[in-house]
């Protein structure tokens, strides 16, 4: 068995797609496809194996020609490849991890995405790419960032549209609440006007609107009861007890009741006036 074959078999067990692109007695090129869950995409790497492999380390490159380190992502570079113990599958896995670390949160460009973008470019841009070897790499770097900016702008527009739609839904509710508030305000104004008219409709409220007015009102009531009592006494004296005893007794009882009522009212007046001192 060729010494490379066990490495390739293990590589195929570790990764979803492994294809031999080119193979000669002196070299072999492999295409390895692997999903990067942290970026949400699938990346493709090219693995070059020299005829001296595994004594010589594999060379792993991205499609743009960038060589990726096969050392772990912890930053250690010593003994990245040991011919006796290193495994090709581990080296390729490290290369994929370094690719994800290189691009961070941005999805790296792929041949398919570049082809789609290049198909929409003008001839002058294509000429620049052909004439300037750094233009393609620069474009490959810029494309994911522009895409991220465009996606963020799209999300912002979607959020603005959502807020606008919510405002449209809330507008009828606000109009209804405004109408209810205006109705309550009108009702309150009418109630205030009614309360303001009450003193005019009920003179008694004006008479007791202050302590002095209440004291005067009590004194007036006492005088009124005195006048009523005197009127009853005057009528009582005009009745002949011998001839109209029933009327005399009725007026006498009425006089006693009025005198008692006057006495109670006078006691209230005196007590209230005493409380003011």
TrEMBL record:
It comes from the Eukaryota. Its main location: other. GO terms for cellular component: ESCRT I complex. One of its GO terms (biological process) is protein targeting to vacuole. Keywords: Endosome, Protein transport, Transport. It is found in: Endosome. Residues 120-265 form the VPS37 C-terminal domain. Belongs to the VPS37 family. This is VPS37 C-terminal domain-containing protein.
């Amino acid at each position: 068995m060729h010494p490379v074959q066990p490495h390739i078999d293990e590589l195929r067990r570790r990764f979803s797609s492994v294809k031999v692109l080119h193979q000669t007695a002196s070299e072999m090129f492999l295409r390895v496809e692997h999903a990067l869950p942290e970026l949400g995409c699938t990346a493709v790497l090219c693995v070059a194996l020299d005829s001296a492999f595994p004594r010589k380390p594999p060379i792993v490159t991205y499609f743009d020609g960038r060589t990726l380190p096969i050392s772990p992502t912890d930053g250690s570079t010593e003994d990245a490849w040991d011919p006796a113990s290193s495994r090709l599958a581990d080296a390729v896995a490290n290369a994929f991890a370094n690719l994800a670390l290189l691009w961070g949160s941005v999805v790296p460009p792929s041949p398919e995405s570049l082809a789609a973008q290049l198909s929409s470019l003008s001839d002058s841009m294509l000429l620049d790419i052909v004439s300037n070897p750094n233009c393609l790499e620069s474009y490959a770097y810029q494309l994911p960032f522009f895409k991220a900016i465009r996606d963020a702008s799209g999300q912002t527009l979607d959020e603005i549209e959502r807020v606008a739609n919510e405002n449209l839904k809330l507008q009828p509710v606000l109009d209804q609440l405004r109408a209810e508030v205006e109705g309550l305000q009108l009702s309150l104004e009418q109630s205030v006007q009614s309360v303001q008219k009450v003193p005019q409709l009920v003179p008694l409220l004006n008479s007791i609107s202050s302590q002095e007015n209440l004291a005067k009102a009590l004194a007036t009531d006492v005088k009124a009861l005195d006048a009523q009592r005197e009127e009853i006494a005057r009528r009582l004296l005009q009745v002949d007890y011998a001839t109209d005893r029933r009327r005399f007794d009725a007026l006498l009882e009425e006089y006693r009741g009025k005198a008692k009522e006057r006495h109670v009212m006078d006691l209230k007046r005196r007590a209230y006036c005493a409380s003011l001192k």
